[in-house]
Amino acid sequence: MEYSEKVMDHFMNPRNVGVIEDASGVGQVGNLKCGDIMKVYLKIENGRIEDAKFKTFGCGAAVATSSMATELVKGKTLQEALEVTNKAVMEALDGLPPVKVHCSCLAEEALHAALWDYAQKNQMEIHGLKAPVEDIDELHQNENED
């Protein structure tokens, strides 16, 4: 399996690893098939993501996508953060092997789950944000049924 230099860099030197104690929003998703679990913490002030941290239990690609996703959302508005999709994460990492694409989906979903948590705590709606799923396999089964 061939990984890009950026994937290897974010795996070997992940950015934003850790916990934000008083996080504005926390999201956790997993993939029961591969056993990856990703938790994202966001600190949000005045409608902007001031800080983002993650804890990931999983393969190198899962760590790399978590690292890149948290880098991509820092400083963004909530609406801009919602636009950080799995495709954006993959592009920023110069691609992922096909069998590892689900890791970028995990990063997107964990991020969206943290945004959802924040929105729920603050009785607000973020346009286009959907309720999170526990296991990303549910998402892909639903997509395949459409």
Tell me what the structure shows.
This is Iron-sulfur cluster assembly scaffold protein IscU. It holds the Pfam family NifU_N. The protein has 146 residues and is α+β, with helices and mostly antiparallel strands. It has a single domain, classed as Alpha-Beta Complex (Sufe protein. Chain: A). Helices cover 45% and strands 18% of the residues. The protein has helices spanning 5-12, 60-73, 78-82, 86-92, 101-121, 136-145, and strands spanning 25-31, 36-45, 48-57.
Q: What is the distance, rounded to the nearest whole angstrom, between the alpha carbons of the first and last residues?
A: 31 Å
Structural class call reads: alpha+beta
- Kindly state the percentage of residues in helix: 40-55%
Catalogue the unreliable spans.
Answer: none
Helix and strand arrangement:
Layout: H1 5-12, E1 25-31, E2 36-45, E3 48-57, H2 60-73, H3 78-82, H4 86-92, H5 101-121, H6 136-145
Helix pairs in contact: 1-2, 2-5, 4-5
Brief overview:
The chain has helices at residues 5-12, 60-73, 78-82, 86-92, 101-121, 136-145; strands at 25-31, 36-45, 48-57. It has 146 residues and is an alpha+beta fold. The chain has a three-stranded antiparallel β-sheet.
Give keywords:
3 strands, NIF_FeS_clus_asmbl_NifU-like, alpha+beta, 18% strand, 146 residues, Sufe protein. Chain: A, 3-stranded antiparallel sheet, iron-sulfur cluster binding, 6 helices, NIF_FeS_clus_asmbl_NifU_N
